[in-house]
Amino acid sequence: MTEPDATRLERLSGMLKRRGILLPAFEIYGGAKGLYDFGPVGGRLRNKVNQAWLNHWLSLGNIVEISCPTVTPYSVLEASGHVGEFSDFMTVCGACEEASRADTLLEPHHSNPDSLTKSELQNLLNQSQPPCPVCQAVEWSEVTAQNLMFNTTIGAGTSGRPGFLRPETAQGMFTSFPALYRHNRERLPFGAIQVGKGYRNEISPRQGMIRLREFNMAELEYFINPHEEAKHDFSPWGEHKITLLADGEGEIQMSFKEAVEQNVIRHATVGYFMAQTFDFLTKIGIDSQRLRFRQHESDEMAHYASDCWDAEIHGSFGWVECVGIAHRGCYDLESHEKATGKSLRARREFSEPKIIETDGWTIDGAKAGPAFRALAGAVKLAVENLPAETSFPHTLSLPEGEEVTVEAEHVKRDQRTETITGEWYIPHVVEPAFGIDRIIWHILDHGYDETGKDGEEYTVMRLSEHVAPVDYCVFPLFEKDGMGEIAKSIHATLCSKQNIVSMYDSSGSIGRRYARADEIGVPKCITVDHQSLEDQTVTIRERDSGEQHRVHIDSL
RNA sequence: GCGGAUAUGGUGUAGUGGUAACAUAGGAGGUUUCCAACCUCUUGUCGCGGGUUCGACUCCCGCUAUCCGCACCA
């Protein structure tokens, strides 16, 4: 970071705090690391970014919005892999109360304790009885999961079950898959989106909004049929070149279409969502020249992903990953299916039904069951593999080594024709996951313009109208001769309209009021002056150009 | 988590073992006031908790937070 950037960052942060956009949370109690408030201006900004995001994806037509709890049972995040990948297991010494990592304590007793589950660690701890590294006592508490996820207890006392605050919104969309599938008339592809809070008990939150312990995230889980080739129309992006940092290729300039065709982007849907992400970010005010996509190297990939691209935005903290677009394969649905035994599958019909002719033997359960007892299952498998021309009695060698003689009365002929028209498969998932706080930071960072005006220091927040927290400021040139009343009535009318925020300001000189409005990015200011009293017109002044034009009050 | 630095009105800074200053911002009023003008009046500050002391914003200890390295990290 260069020196001018560092002081600019200080001025920007100071302004954000002073004007109620972004503030450290709980500051009267000394603050808390990694937790921020969106103030009276920032709250509205966050909401507009969220809304713009929802609208952007809903416009694709096959996307639904859902909302799932942040409090999540232990077993859900165990199945998803987060307990293993996101947690360290802790145990506390009963003598000196020092907390230790269970896997570290057990290193002398196991080659790779990091890979063990909670109950395996507990068992090994009970068996091996390692001494406390601090006081040498052997008095360990029950092993508990700690660290990157905030853990909690759902319910009271001994009946409570363990849980976490979610580290991502995605899991709720996977566990809702059956309802989503039904809602979408059992047809893929479709997507589900939600915006909400996620929590990670980061070891070391830094750099303001970049690494938070509680953060706003917005995720789309898009369920696709891996047996169908994904087709997407890239013509809206044409030959527009994007900066890509591809695994092993370095920085290249390519259109989305080329990148997908040349397999730099390994899946067309990933490429399509990268293009959609590019549109969204530039629409809400991210500078397209300071945006690039970087492909994860294979050893960098999260535990669930098979291909992943980050959208990185350049700002005061350098290049920061703000969106991750991951091909998660069938990892999540498969994991939850295994853990619960519930089907999380979609049906696909074959283009040609598969006809399976069976001509062979199977057992007659009523005879073979009593005859072979525990071995009956193995006998059945073996008999069904016998050729049709086998004659009985027949001696079989079972896999476990036993020899049995199968009599004719134990078997019956099995001749049938089955028509299989389709199959149940686990859908694949492509997930664009947006860090809303990081994006908001960069909107502010890119919009913050202190180029000055007439040689004096002057700052303007050049926010897109899609996200500007205040739409209009209404000023009376003076608050007298009826100008104040006209301005207040305009203000009241604007406020009564849906999704319009107007601010009324009558204090200070008119120039000062324009400056205050510019600082928080108000796109348009409306001023009531003497002429308004005579002909019912007002001036509208544009933030970015400073130009004014006069319109009738009724046309506002 | 380790090491270093820092913590004074909303913001940016000064300063002292004897209850704190400047600028700016904010509020009220004035000024026919259209790009941070001017005049008058005015609100508001020593991060938290201990200790030393007659007395601590100041010295000491601990905590918390912030910033910079290192480590970790969708």
Structural class: alpha+beta
* Range of helix content: 25-40%
Overall residue-averaged pLDDT value: 86
Give the N-terminus to C-terminus distance in angstroms: 45 Å
Low-confidence stretches: none
Give the strand tally.
28
User: How many discrete domains?
Assistant: 4
The CATH superfamily of the largest domain turns out to be: Bira Bifunctional Protein, Domain 2
Please give the count of helices. Answer: 17
Q: Radius of gyration over alpha carbons?
A: 32 Å
Strand-residue fraction?
A: 25-35%
Biggest sheet strand line-up: 3-10-11-21-16-15-14-12-13
* Global geometry: elongated
CATH fold-level assignment of the largest domain: BirA Bifunctional Protein, domain 2
CATH class of the largest domain: Alpha Beta
Characterize the main sheet: 9 strands, mixed
Question: Can you describe this structure?
Answer:
The chain has 556 residues and is α+β, with helices and mostly antiparallel strands. It contains 17 helices and 28 strands. Helix content is 29%, strand content 30%. It has four domains: 3-68 and 166-332 and 429-437, 2-Layer Sandwich (BirA Bifunctional Protein, domain 2), CATH 3.30.930; 71-165, Herpes Virus-1 (2-Layer Sandwich), CATH 3.30.40; 348-423, no CATH class; 470-555, Anticodon-binding domain (Rossmann fold, 3-Layer(aba) Sandwich). The model has no long low-confidence stretch (mean pLDDT 86). A nine-stranded mixed sheet has the order 3-10-11-21-16-15-14-12-13. It has a five-stranded mixed sheet with strand order 25-24-26-27-28, sandwiched between helices. A three-stranded antiparallel sheet has the order 4-9-8. It binds one RNA strand of 74 nucleotides through helix 1, strand 16 and helix 16.
